[in-house]
Amino acid sequence: MNTIILHQNIQDFISKNVGAPISKLALQKNPFPEVDWILILNQIEAKTKAKDKLPTWFKTENIIYPSKVSVEQTSSEKTAAYKASLISGKTLIDLTGGFGVDDYYFSQKFESVTHCEINADLSEIVKHNLQQLGVKNCFYYADDSANILKESDQKWDWIYIDPSRRNDAKGKVFMLKDCLPNVPDSLDFYFEKSDSILIKTAPLLDISAGLSELKFVKNIHIIALENEVKELLFEIHNNYAGAITIKTANILKEKTEIFEFVLGDETEFPSYELPQKYVYEPNSAIMKSGGFDEVSSFFKIDKLHKHSHLYTSEDLIDFPGRTFKIEKVIPYSKNEMKTELSNQQANITTRNFPDTVENIRKKWKIKNGGNLYCFFTTDVKDNKIVLICTKII
């Protein structure tokens, strides 16, 4: 860790150039010849990345940033704070500490947090930064977490793991066994050190694939930020044998949309209807969960089609996703399209429809944007239809 970049004049320069094009700055003469110019440019680029994602770090003085990749790969503050709200206890060990954003929030829920990071320089940076942020209950180990666990006789209340995909696994179907550490192979060893484990995975991991590799799963958390799935969390407890609950959260500026259901639980068969007054599109966390019948059953609303994953009702309800008022329903035909949408401006979504948004726009000369929202989909009678809507929420 190079602390020379903490000199006030260098910090002022970094702050002044946040958001500036790095390619242009790189062509300038280094105003601080005693410091590696690449190091300063990296601080500017990483701090720029942190402005929206890590506002607490961005606003705090004397923060040192690692490579921009570490900032890109770390949890955002909003997802880290939500994640910390899911668990509690006295002690937690993070086996894949990284930039320490998760541990900052875990430290507010636990009496002590152990941060393990095999990269010694990154470990020093995290220690420095969390001290700047006022964290006093975190312990730092620059070593392979497997060694730390083996050498300790402590048992923690929680183990947290964010495994990274191995470079030689590119191109393969994403599995936890393709990551470091290999959690499925290490579970029995981990359970010697804790009875509760929280595993963060990339959102592209298939839930059924994760369940096939793990055991004792109690909860699966799907976390989206502004309708983009960011994290998939498997919460496992030693020897747990009960039902698995899938909990979805879509974190928005004004609120967090929550929906949960028991995996495999018997639910009422969904009802199907032709489009009514309103149409509902589930948020991305629910879409990832696959709980489409459960949505229909819980909210008492009708599905348009078994595979469309759009819902409709005559009365307006509070729904975890986007809500639209249906202004008109037209069959997907040449005459209707020419009359209603050709050469118009509209936002287009396809659900269970044989053509792509790009092809639809090109074929009917529909410009993007505006106040109209069009769903190209299939109804309960297997007819291809277009819902012409205005957005409510």
Describe this entry's structure for a reader:
The protein is an alpha/beta fold and 393 residues long. It is built from 15 helices and 18 strands. Helix 15 (357-364) links the parallel strand 16 (347-351) and strand 17. 36% of the residues are buried.
Q: End-to-end span in angstroms?
A: 47 Å
What class do helices, strands and sheet pairing give?
Answer: alpha/beta
Work out the helicity level. Answer: 25-40%
Strand content: 25-35%
Largest sheet: 9 strands, mixed
Number of strands: 18
Give keywords.
393 residues; alpha/beta; 9-stranded mixed sheet; 7-stranded mixed sheet; 26% strand; globular
Summarize the structure.
The protein is of the alpha/beta class and 393 residues long. The chain contains 15 helices and 18 strands.
